[in-house]
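Hi all, a correction to my earlier message: I attached the wrong file for 4-hydroxybenzoyl-CoA thioesterase. Here's the right sequence:
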Amino acid sequence: MTKQSLSSEVIMIPSFQDADPMGVVYHGNYFRFFEEARRVMLDKIGYNYREMQASGYMWPIIDTRVKYIKPIAFDLTVRVEAKLTEWENRLKVDYVIYDAQTGARLTKGYTMQVAVDIKTEEMCFVSPKAFTDKIEAWNHNA
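and the right structure:
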């Protein structure tokens, strides 16, 4: 595991198009919020999706879970936190969505991704050096 957990947070305001007819964010859109926080987190170590591809790996999601605690209205400002909790054999990122004003926890979840060699399309059973070097460099500088 990392010495200091790699994490990020983003502030988002769901738009009207994110909501169902009752004005509540559609359940599938929570993954977009997770994705944005994960994108910012991976940018911190210089391993965003373009850099993943350039390193010869794709990282499909193989498992995910969301616990909907309280509904999110389409115009509510939310804070989405992402934290890397596993990285040696797969990427596991935990998420929490909070009401940005009150701090109330609204949602939590996780995603798991594995490295797949782009050329062979074979799943890697350990995270590739191209990724672990980025984590180690970040830890060294953190």
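Sorry for the mix-up. The chain has a mean pLDDT of 94.
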